[in-house]
Amino acid sequence: MAYYQTKRADFKISLASIGQKLREALDLRILAGFSAAALLLVGVGWYSYGSIKNSVRSQVQVWLETMLEADVQELSVWFEVQRSALARLAADAEVERSAVELMALEEDASAGRRALLQSAALSSLKETFKEFGEQRELFDFFVAAASGRYIAAAQEEHIGNLVPESLYGFMREVLGGKAAVAPNVGSPDRLLIGVPLRNESGKPAAVLGFSIRPELSFAKVLIAGRRDSQAESLVFNTEGLIISGSERGQIVAHGRFAPKKGRPNAGFGEYLGNSGEMMVGAWGWLSDYGVGLLTRMRADYAYRALEVLQRTFGVLFGLLVASTFGCVLVSYALIIWRRRAQKELQEARHLGPYVLEERIGKGGMGEVYRAKHRLLRRPTAIKLIRSEAVSVEALNQFEREVQLTSQLRHPNTIAIYDYGRTPDNIFYYAMEYLDGMTLKELVGTYGPQPEARVIHVLQGICASLHEAHQAGLVHRDIKPANVMLCSLGGLCDVVKVLDFGLVTDLTRPGEGALGPLLGSIRFIAPEVMLTPQAIDARSDIYSVGALAYYILTGGYVFCAQTDLEYQRCVLSQDPDSSSSRLGKAIETDLAQVVMACLSRDLSARPQDVLDLSARLANCRAAGEWNHSQAKEWWTEYGKHCNDHDGSDAMNATRAVKSVQTLTVVAAERQ
After folding, report:
1. Does the CA dihedral 555-561-567-568 come out positive or negative?
2. Count H helices, E strands: the chain?
3. What is the secondary structure of 275-301 as a DSSP string?
4. 113, 192, 283, 292: which one has the fewest Cβ atoms less than 10 Å from its Cβ?
5. Which of 124-138, 453-467, 474-488 has the highest mean pLDDT?
6. Which residue has the higher pLDDT, 598 or 242?
7. What pLDDT sits at residue 6?
8. pTM of the model
9. What single-letter DSSP state applies at residue 413?
């Protein structure tokens, strides 16, 4: 009998919902007309703005590429002048005579290194090459015989020794009979230039080389900065290291322009500079000289002409909004009372086997209710998602994520009991109703936590993640707001991992291979920042390490004002030790485990959560946080340590946190 009463009530609700939607549709026709006109005007304006923006961008590209071409020409001329000067020096009769004499000494096995050092030919060459280098801003000369041994050098300790293997390719090219330019492996911010020295028969028999210091020579050659004070040309080597310019010693555009197989040798575009500002630049690779050249300027300066255009469109858009607002207001007033009635109806309805007791939260896509199962009387949190608020694709994504999470049975993972759709196509799912607080609330209210409690929390998280990883699922969003400490079944400090809304199924081909960077930037692993598809269980381990750092110290791994600055720190810096951040000593074993999780080197991290859990178990403080301590803490501070699931407003607010985040994620995706 109760079953038929329930079906009859659901049928009446469905009829009322259909009639309500028909009445709203009549009013929405007027609203739709005004909205369509407004959207048309916005579309035309956006298209016009985009066309003008593309035109300005093309002009900036032509201008920067013109300056780049001029700088490439100047740099090429400079290299050729140096090559010619070196060739003339090598052909000098006195230089050839001295070089031949040194080569003869090197070939004489009985002569030895002392004979080279005491040779008058060496003194003559040193004096000649020193004077030449000062005139040409060339440094650290050397002469290496074809055997690979130094026979003359600015640093006497090199004379008589073999050249490094890294110079063999450079020597082979020069001994082939032509001048060459190559990176100086011993000093990455310098270059080598060399020409052949010939023997008495006129064949190349030795290499004469000099070191180039780009920060001194190239700054006088490049002309971009002289044309516009905001423009600058940077020279970088094969590794992407800037060797001339204001950012000397840094990696250009995070290695984006370094030469690699399959990359073009020239290009134009915007990129994030090392200072955190957006830059626009044109670049090219000079393969003959082994260097690249980037002519760039700040994007806001390059596109400053668009600021006036943006203000104009802003004023026009404001007028459009004001003119349509009055029309929309009337239509909105007609339907607002009907929507309120519908909400009141929804709050009173029965949903399948559940009785909705009280609405405890709402968002842009639905509402959250505290409910009880009709027969089991089990407290439950139920999320209702309105079909008109999301797309079909988003609803399907919700369903898939609920299915993935429902496969997990570990007690440290939030449980999903049920899901489905109502007759009027409202998607819902029922989840475990939790009594507790998130780690974000815990640290925000009570500050850094003791080491023993931190280990207890981390081991609970590892236990939850182990089941997920075994099933081929990666959480992707471990952070303080997604982990709760609960009073559950008479136990205190029960760890619950929430929100598998960003879960990636590694067993499905292509899963997570595309799409934007998802997750919380202060807990995302560096490899995921660089390549979102490069995600595996070790990415979750990095997030666990960042979470451990947070609850140990009360702060994030890096101190940064913006997300961009934080991302740059993650990719290029090592974090401060947790002890120095906290201002007091932390047990070395636990600190080492946390720092291992935060390593940018994947192989240096624990390779799975079982490894991490084992390392935590070996820490001195492991096991010191017990049930008595947890219950004492909750009795004094939490006021939730009891043997039943509370139903007060505070518990309801905290329980809803476990089901709201999925909705936010889907809204961002849509």
Report:
1. negative
2. 20, 21
3. TSSEEEEEEEEETTTTEEEEEEEEHHH
4. 113
5. 453-467
6. 598
7. 41
8. 0.47
9. B
Under 8 Å between Cβ of 131 and 210: no
- Among 392-406, 413-427, 473-487, where is mean pLDDT lowest? 392-406
- Beta strands 427-432 and 379-385: pairing type? antiparallel
Q: Is the pLDDT of residue 595 over 90?
A: yes
C-beta separation of 245 from 251 below 8 A? no
User: 496: Cβ–Cβ under 8 A, 6 or more apart, which residues?
Assistant: 412, 413, 414, 432, 434, 436, 464, 483, 484, 485, 486, 488, 658
CATH superfamily placement of domain 435-504+519-641: Transferase(Phosphotransferase) domain 1 (1.10.510.10)
What residue ranges do the domains of the chain occupy? 92-212, 435-504+519-641
Instruction: Enter the tokens of residue 466.
Output: 């182990």
- Give the containing element (helix H, strand E) for 465: helix 451-470
How far apart are alpha carbons 432 and 658 in whole angstroms?
8
What's the CA gap between 626 and 624, in Å, rounded? 6
Residues 6+ apart with CB under 8 A from 189: 214, 215, 237, 241, 243, 248, 249
In contact, 478 and 495? CB cutoff 8 Å: no
Superfamily the domain 92-212 falls into = PAS domain (3.30.450.20)
- Residue 196 above 80 pLDDT? yes
The tokens for 395 are 């609803």
| Residue 644: φ, ψ to 5° | -140, 165
Choice between 325 and 295, residue whose per-residue pLDDT is larger: 295
What one-character DSSP code corresponds to residue 149? Answer: B
Residue 589 reports pLDDT greater than 70: yes
Cβ atoms of 508 and 514 closer than 8 Å: no
Would you say residue 10 has pLDDT above 80? no
Half-sphere exposure of 654 (CA within 13 A, CB side): 23
Q: Spell out the residues 6+ positions from residue 19 whose beta carbon is closer than 8 angstroms to its own.
A: none
Contact between residue 527 and residue 536 where contact means Cβ atoms under 8 Å apart: no
Q: Which residues have CB under 8 Å from 603's CB, separation 6+?
A: none
Cα–Cα distances in angstroms (integers) from residue 573 to residues 203, 562, 566, in the given order: 51, 16, 10
When computed from its CA atoms, the radius of gyration of the chain, rounded to whole angstroms, is: 35
Angle at 151 between CA 146 and CA 154, to 5 degrees: 125
Angle at 54 between CA 49 and CA 57, to 5 degrees: 125
pLDDT, residue 394, reads 73
Residue 287: Cβ-neighbour burial (10 angstroms; 0-12, 13-18, 19+): exposed
At 7, is the pLDDT very low, low, confident or very high (cuts 50, 70, 90)?
A: very low
Residue type for position 341: A
